[in-house]
Amino acid sequence: MTLKALLLSLLSFITTAVAQESFEIKPISQGFEDPIAITSIAGEPSKIFVVERVGTVAVIENGKRATRDLLDIKNIISTQEDAGLSGIAFPPNYAQNKEVYATYTDKQGDTVVGRFPTKIDQTADEDSLIVVLKVVQPYPHGHRSALAFAGDDTLLIGLGDAPQKPGVSSLAQNSRSLFGKVLRIAVTDPTRYTIPSDNPFAKRHDMAAEIWALGIQNPTSISFDPKTKRVMLIDSGRGIQELNLIERGKNYGWNITEGENCVVSTCDMSHFTSPVYSYFATTQSDAIPGFFYNGTTIPTLQGAYLFADSHSKTLFKLAPSGGTWSTTPIARTSFPIVAIGQGVQGQIYIATSDGTLSAVIGSA
Question: Do 220 and 247 contact (CB within 8 A), yes or no?
Answer without folding.
Answer: no
